[in-house]
Specification:
single chain, Alpha-Beta Plaits, 25% strand, alpha/beta, 37% helix, Dihydrodipicolinate Reductase, domain 2, binds NADPH dihydro-nicotinamide-adenine-dinucleotide phosphate, binds L-homoserine, 6-stranded parallel beta sheet, Rossmann fold
Length: 436
């Protein structure tokens, strides 16, 4: 049978990984796909480096339009990144009747609905396994493996760079900036690493997972996003003393009145498997009503782990290319006319537990005044830690873990606590999830 011809846009970290793995495992992949899959054309701005990487085995051009306009190309892989030129190229490739594979979560989280609509109208597939959690087949699991379930919630460590930073800082006591540079050197970080450390990349990914899990539109603009840049080492230490780890989690949760969609540093009980996911590894927990809790673990970034997901999509498309478009798995798991516009809840309406660090004057009655404010707001205390004051400094930290409450209740309580004359500065608040 005629081979499937692939055009690759961008041969950087993931593009070169894809080229190499496809070449190395060509025979095995052909036995699975039923026909050969070959990259016949590569577009990259740096054609010299691209020629070195491809070693004369395919045509190299510097204009991506030459690839998407080539009638011989069946599938276009977009590995440029961002939502500028990449968006134009993906939409043009679809208009030209090409199937598309992309790892570009930023593009899909912002423009996914328009791209999937265009693809559906044209009868082509847009596959994006690599866009979420690198090499972990989480899109496949959510879209197909768990299709019998009503998904209740999912929570994941879905940014390798930040998990790598948190692990290295905790285990080796290294500085934030040093570890970030190492993550960049290893190819984990985004072109603009603020996307990683400010939680934006994780929010792109959780937005896509929420759409697939709950049958809602892709709504990145409604996600709450908080990264790790304001996290302090002292809170990581106090959390450890209370039996918790702090991880940057992406959370999507179905509630009776809407959907929670949020990314923020989160305390997780240290005994949970997911709390022990270290380095650039990713893990996603999914709770389905029939299956119960499930956990998916693996490398979330890097050249070959991500290539593994890109090539899985190539094989899927190759197998399904001749199938009637009506009978393919829908891009976002639910049939396009069955997508519901369930509201995304504002942060004041989310329900979770909280870690509070309150810096206070070491005076009698301070603790009582704080706990009475929490009691007034109907917030119960789960655990507490009061540090010895430093010698010669009559101030100390009180750390409180609350039970679950609405965020607007804790906001109101924190405002009252900060107004107490014995409380010094701002209260540090970190959300906490039991993930039981
Ligand atoms: P890189 O920056 O390493 O690679 C991008 C490549 O695209 C570069 O070679 C760049 O060339 C080239 N390029 C830029 N503009 C054009 C253009 N107009 N036409 C053709 N080529 C162009 O990025 P990554 O491989 O790390 O990431 C690619 C995508 O995969 C991104 O969407 C990213 O979010 C996603 N991703 C990355 C992961 C990772 O671990 N790195 C994991 C999962 C997803 P030049 O260098 O000359 O500018
Ligand atoms: N920058 C991303 C991360 C790459 O660190 O997880 C994988 O999507």
């Amino acid at each position: 049978m005629k081979s499937i011809k692939v055009g690759l846009l961008g041969i950087g970290t993931v593009g070169s990984g894809t080229f190499n793995v496809l070449k190395r495992n060509r025979e095995e992949i052909m036995r699975r796909a039923g026909r050969a899959i070959e990259i016949t054309m590569v577009a990259d701005l740096n054609t010299e480096r691209a020629r070195e990487l491809t070693n004369g085995e395919c045509e190299v051009v510097n204009d991506a339009n030459l690839v998407i306009n080539n009638p011989d190309i069946d599938i276009v892989i977009e590995l440029i990144g961002g939502y500028g030129i990449a968006k134009d190229l993906v939409l043009k490739a679809i208009a030209n009747g090409k199937h598309v594979v992309t790892a570009n979560k930023a593009l899909l989280a912002l423009h996914g609905d328009a791209i999937f609509k265009a693809a559906q109208e044209k009868g082509v597939m847009v596959a994006f396994e690599a866009a979420v959690a690198g090499g972990i087949p989480i899109i496949k699991a959510l879209r197909e493996g768990l299709t019998a379930n009503r998904i209740e919630w999912l929570a994941g460590i879905i940014n390798g760079t930040t998990n790598f930073i948190l692990s290295e800082m905790r285990d080796k006591g290294l500085d934030f900036d040093v570890v970030l540079q190492e993550a960049q050197r290893l190819g984990y970080a985004e072109a603009d690493p603020t996307f990683d450390i400010e939680g934006i990349d994780a929010a792109h990914k959780v937005t896509l997972m929420a759409a697939i899990a709950f049958g809602i539109p892709v709504q990145f603009d409604k996600a709450y996003v908080e990264g790790i840049t304001k996290l302090q080492g002292i809170d990581i230490q106090y959390a450890e003393q209370l039996g918790y780890r702090i991880k940057l989690l992406g959370i999507a949760k179905r509630m009776p009145n809407g959907i929670e969609l949020r990314v923020h540093p989160t305390l997780i009980p240290a005994k949970r498997l997911i709390a022990n996911v270290e380095g650039a590894m990713n893990a996603v927990m999914v709770q389905g009503d029939a299956v119960g809790p499930t956990l998916y673990y693996g490398k979330g970034a890097g050249a070959e782990p991500t290539a593994s997901a890109v090539i899985a999509d190539l094989v899927d498309i190759t197998r399904l290319a001749t199938a009637d478009p009506e009978h393919r798995v829908p891009h976002l798991a639910f049939q396009p006319d069955a997508v519901h516009d369930t509201p995304i809840l504002p942060m004041g309406e989310i329900t979770t537990s909280y870690y509070l660090r309150i810096h206070v004057a070491d005076e009698a009655g301070v603790l009582a005044s704080i706990t009475s404010i929490l009691a007034d707001a109907g917030i119960s205390v789960g655990a507490m830690l009061q540090k010895e004051p430093v010698e010669g400094k009559p101030e100390t930290d009180i750390i409180i873990l609350t039970h679950q409450t609405l965020e607007k209740n804790i906001d109101a309580a924190i405002a009252r606590i900060e107004a107490l004359p014995t409380v010094r500065g701002k209260v540090v608040r970190i959300r906490s999830e039991e993930l039981a």
